[in-house]
Structure formats: structure tokens, C-alpha cells
Amino acid sequence: MAAKIHTNKDVSIAPLKKKTLAVIGFGSQGHAHALNLKDSGLNVLVGLHKKSKSRAIAKQLGFKVMDTAEAVKAADVIFIATPDTVVPEVYQKDIAKNLTKGKTLLFAHGFAIHFKTITPPKNVDVILVAPKGPGHTLRSQFVEGKGIPGLIAVHQDVSGKAKETALAWARGIGCTRAGVFETNFREETVTDLFGEQCVICGGAAALVKAGFEVLVKAGYQPEMAYFECLHELKLTVDLMNESGIAGMRFSISETAEYGDVTVGPKIIDRAVKKRMAKQLKAIESGEFAREWTAEYAGGNKHFNAIRKAEALHPIEKIGAKLRASMSWIKARKIKKGASQASFTSTSR
Fold this sequence. Notes:
Layout: E1 5-6, E2 20-24, H1 28-39, E3 43-48, H2 54-60, E4 64-67, H3 68-74, E5 77-80, H4 87-95, E6 104-107, H5 111-114, E7 125-131, H6 135-143, E8 150-156, H7 162-172, E9 180-182, H8 185-200, H9 202-217, H10 222-251, H11 254-267, H12 270-284, H13 287-297, H14 301-311, H15 314-323, H16 341-344
Parallel strand pairs: 2-3, 2-5, 3-4, 5-6, 6-7, 8-9
Antiparallel strand pairs: 1-9, 7-8
Helix pairs in contact: 1-6, 3-4, 8-9, 8-12, 9-10
């Protein structure tokens, strides 16, 4: 049976019109949701801890900024837009005691609920609205009058109107312009983690580095290796994104297509799929979630060591050099801990 797709024509924003919406956190997703909802004519406030650097940014963008606990008290719908590892601390400290009967708790990712790092009371609605893209894309597409697809899910429906609330929020942030699909917290969480780890982030980055290293070790110039293994990847992925795998193959040369269909399966073979399946089991069982929360609780020592080593990989040095000569690529300085709102949230 085909999935039900919700669009603007069958979704109303009315269920949120008389409600106060609190966005807890003002990073990538938080700032985009808050700005889009505000531009949709809804009453939005931002909840942050006292020393948050995002407070000044949120105020400059016209939001009423409150301490997290006070924002939860004042709101009817509370969107937790903090990192998965931070959610338990914020929830226990500022949200739980102020989450009174009749309120709605909303997430953009099901991690905290599915892996039970928090346990909401039984007298509130718990829903998910997950845009399928980063916050800056959610915002930029909204400003252009467009939208990106999204997912909704309902974990607890005390009011009988939880789905209605989720759809109204999805409309407010622009996702119903592109289409919203129904899922559940487990499916969203497991598939999202699997995709990140095995394909779009972990898998792609590891494949790019492996190809670069093989070429350089064989004596080819690192610049050539960079162009062939990293730079041109975007061009191919864009074709896949726009027209599917078949469309991509139609657009490339026959030599490239033949190499694709005959050599690709030799590289990404049954052994790779077997390891992917093993990682899927680790995600489903909660093993990955336990490992990640333990790493965070221990101060991210192992994680930070990996980050440092990865930043020193030769592909980063050669990439920075080559990108500096590409005028069409807009350089972006990414500072650790900086809010993305500072460079992605203003209207064009």
C-alpha cells in the first residue's frame, strides 16, 4: 500500500494558531523551526539556559527568549531541539517538572524516546516532526517559498489530536509544501542512524578516503585523487538526487556507466552488506545508543581523538588548497559550538 502523503492542500495550521510554541535550543534545527513558525504567523518563544551564546542571536531575530524552565511553563507545545546526548540533562533539570497535563512534547528525532533516555509522563502528547534535511536547508527553502519533505510520528496521543498538532507544525515549518509522510519513532530513529553511519556520512566519507589513499599510494598526484574521489562525487550525487540512479546513469558516459554496473558491486559487495546488517542490529538493539551515551558521559575522549586525527588527513589539506581556487564554492568557516543561526537564519 502506498504511503499517505500530506501536503498543504489537506493540512491546516489552525490547531497551533491559539497556542504558545516553545523551541528549546537554537542550533541547526531549532533556529530554522523557530523562524519558519514565526514567519507562518505563530506565537513562538525560545528557551535557552542562562549562559547560552544563542540568546543574543535569538533576541536579534525578534524572539522572546526565556530560561528553559520558564519557556516550558509558558508553552503548550515544547519542541526539544538540543543534541540527543544533552536531552536527558535538559529534560530532568528544566522540562520534566514543568511538563503539566495537556501539553505536547515534540522532537525532530526519535532517539530520546525510542532508546528511553527520557520517560515522558502519560498525560502529555508526544510527537515527532522530522524534516529530511539540515536546518539551514529547511530555512532557505522556506524563505524561497518552497519546502523540504518531512516525517511525522505519534508516540502518545492523550488529547486525541496529536497527529493534527504534528501536521500543523509540519505545515508551519514548510514541510507540507513538499510532502509529509507518516512513520513511527522506532522506524525514524533506526533508519536515520543507519543511513548516517553506513551510507550518507560514514559510508561515503570512508569510501572517499579509501579511494584517495589508494591513488596516492600508487603514485598519483593528490590533486588528481581529490578531484576524482571527492570533488566529482557531488556532481554524481546531485544527478541521483534529481533523477534517481537510473537518471544518473543516463547522464554519464557509457564508459562510466559500464564501470559503475560491473565494478561497483565488486567494491560494495556481500561482505559490505553483511557488515551493514550487523551494524543495523547494533542500532536496533540499542548497542550503538549505549556506546554513544557512554562516550559522551566520559567526556568524548575517544571521539575527540578521532576528530583530531581525521582533521589531519591529507585529503583535508589538499582539499582546502583546491577549494580556495573554486570561486563558485562559498567558503564556510565552521566553529565548534557556534550556532548555525548566525549565518543561515536571516531572510534573503
